[in-house]
Amino acid sequence: MEAIRIRAIVSMQSRPKLRRHARLQYDPVRDAWALLSPERIFWPNEVSLDILRLCDGTHDVAEMIALLADQYGADEADIAPDVTAFLQEWSDKFLVTLQQVQEKCDAVFRPDLRENE
Amino acid sequence: MTEAILPPIAMLAELTHRCPLQCAYCSNPVELLKANREMGTQGWLTLFEEAADLGVLQVHLSGGEPTLRSDLTEIIACLAGRGVYTNLITAGVGIPEGRIEAFAAAGLDHVQLSFQGAHPQTTEKVGNHRGAHEKKIETARRVREAGLPLTINAPIHRHNMHEVPDFIEMALSLGAERLEIANVQYAGWALINRDALMPDRESVERQVQIVEEAQERLRGIMTIDFVTPDYFAIYPKPCMGGWARDAFMVAPDGTVLPCHAAHTIKSLHFEQFGDWKLGDIWRDSPAFNAFRGTDWMAEPCRSCERQELDWGGCRCQAMAIAGDAAATDPACIKSPLHARMGALIEEAARMGAASSDTGFQYRRIGKVAEPIL
């Protein structure tokens, strides 16, 4: 029914966006931000929350890192590995999508390595 | 209670016991409620408002078949209006045209669709419903077209365990983000059908290998959640995340319970919504407080370092096998009755080998009475 499915890999050109079924919302009962998803609820800490808030599909990863570095008074090179690792993990958990500008092009030329097809 | 009672996070709403399928492992009580016992629309809406006030963030709309409730769109809209995450748990058979789109428009967040088999003949045999498989495929298509995320739920037992690789391929081809390979838990209908459903040890071990390999291979492509079978376990599961710790369920007539099998513990009385406010039930119901936290535990749980990992396991399984809801879950290797689990597997294998057909006692309203334990 769907096209061949491949794992999205984070790059500096990815434009992460929260998936439709993942919702970030403030919970007044617990006075905390919750990330709601099917079967699971996550409680992001302050840093995670700042990254998640930038996952709106308008910033690419390079811009996100620059914004976060500015916000935390840190070097981009220092925080980049953490940010990309988080985004890859959240993509693998189906909380964010990693859209890319050249996505269409990639999909056409990327070889398929799945077996038994 | 030495520990403070925290607000509940999730609830399971069994809106109805009516269902077009007759699965022999249904988690509903053996004594099913007819439509005239179901709580009305206003009752459910009031209950959901109180649940949101109490801190519930996620509601699983289940049954029976929840889409048989004509007020389901209204219920979804009410929950969505309160910011509550809604998950529709459906068999996906006989949903009228346009309804899934209406659920999506009302704010439904996610759909979990069950498949009894990865092939039409298995789905039909297990659910005892002709054409069920094709109808489910069509439902999956409509869910995707409505832009809703999809989980495929595959309840696994002796008669479909060999189809696990096909379930994985099917879920991929249906565009599901998530697949639940859920081995049947022996409560409710599954308990009276235990000998007909129990797999053998070799098949279970092969299944574990297949699922673990697929989880690795499909990382970032499809999530596979694996519910392993208790009878083959060394340690019990933290059933419901601990009794009355962060979740509860409501039966079609508004009875509020810590889990969907809790009614099998006859020494407990469960309050009905309407007689009591939801918050009062959560905090003060003697049934909710009976096994909350760790104070109720006897040995070997009392001195066990895992007591806050598994919260003593499943109270209903303790009731079913040990005959005592306060006993350690016999799934635990530290339980004096753990060997009984192994003996029940062997017994089921002998019974299964001796019978030519499935031997299912299909789920039907008013068909059988609860077994006396």
UniProtKB/TrEMBL annotation, chain A:
<dbReference type="GO" id="GO:0018189">
    <property type="term" value="P:pyrroloquinoline quinone biosynthetic process"/>
</dbReference>
<comment type="pathway">
    <text>Cofactor biosynthesis; pyrroloquinoline quinone biosynthesis.</text>
</comment>
<dbReference type="GO" id="GO:0048038">
    <property type="term" value="F:quinone binding"/>
</dbReference>
<dbReference type="InterPro" id="IPR041881">
    <property type="entry name" value="PqqD_sf"/>
</dbReference>
<protein>
    <submittedName>
        <fullName>Pyrroloquinoline quinone biosynthesis peptide chaperone PqqD</fullName>
    </submittedName>
</protein>
<dbReference type="Pfam" id="PF05402">
    <property type="entry name" value="PqqD"/>
</dbReference>
<dbReference type="InterPro" id="IPR008792">
    <property type="entry name" value="PQQD"/>
</dbReference>
<comment type="subunit">
    <text>Monomer. Interacts with PqqE.</text>
</comment>
<dbReference type="InterPro" id="IPR022479">
    <property type="entry name" value="PqqD_bac"/>
</dbReference>
<keyword id="KW-0884">PQQ biosynthesis</keyword>
TrEMBL record, chain B:
<dbReference type="GO" id="GO:0032324">
    <property type="term" value="P:molybdopterin cofactor biosynthetic process"/>
</dbReference>
<keyword id="KW-0560">Oxidoreductase</keyword>
<dbReference type="Pfam" id="PF13186">
    <property type="entry name" value="SPASM"/>
</dbReference>
<dbReference type="InterPro" id="IPR023885">
    <property type="entry name" value="4Fe4S-binding_SPASM_dom"/>
</dbReference>
<dbReference type="GO" id="GO:1904047">
    <property type="term" value="F:S-adenosyl-L-methionine binding"/>
</dbReference>
<dbReference type="GO" id="GO:0009975">
    <property type="term" value="F:cyclase activity"/>
</dbReference>
<dbReference type="Pfam" id="PF04055">
    <property type="entry name" value="Radical_SAM"/>
</dbReference>
<dbReference type="InterPro" id="IPR058240">
    <property type="entry name" value="rSAM_sf"/>
</dbReference>
<dbReference type="InterPro" id="IPR007197">
    <property type="entry name" value="rSAM"/>
</dbReference>
<dbReference type="InterPro" id="IPR050377">
    <property type="entry name" value="Radical_SAM_PqqE_MftC-like"/>
</dbReference>
<keyword id="KW-0884">PQQ biosynthesis</keyword>
<dbReference type="InterPro" id="IPR011843">
    <property type="entry name" value="PQQ_synth_PqqE_bac"/>
</dbReference>
<protein>
    <recommendedName>
        <fullName>PqqA peptide cyclase</fullName>
        <ecNumber>1.21.98.4</ecNumber>
    </recommendedName>
</protein>
<dbReference type="GO" id="GO:0005506">
    <property type="term" value="F:iron ion binding"/>
</dbReference>
<dbReference type="InterPro" id="IPR006638">
    <property type="entry name" value="Elp3/MiaA/NifB-like_rSAM"/>
</dbReference>
<comment type="function">
    <text>Catalyzes the cross-linking of a glutamate residue and a tyrosine residue in the PqqA protein as part of the biosynthesis of pyrroloquinoline quinone (PQQ).</text>
</comment>
<comment type="subunit">
    <text>Interacts with PqqD. The interaction is necessary for activity of PqqE.</text>
</comment>
<feature type="binding site">
    <location>
        <position position="23"/>
    </location>
    <ligand>
        <name>[4Fe-4S] cluster</name>
    </ligand>
</feature>
<comment type="pathway">
    <text>Cofactor biosynthesis; pyrroloquinoline quinone biosynthesis.</text>
</comment>
<dbReference type="GO" id="GO:0051539">
    <property type="term" value="F:4 iron, 4 sulfur cluster binding"/>
</dbReference>
<dbReference type="InterPro" id="IPR017200">
    <property type="entry name" value="PqqE-like"/>
</dbReference>
<keyword id="KW-0411">Iron-sulfur</keyword>
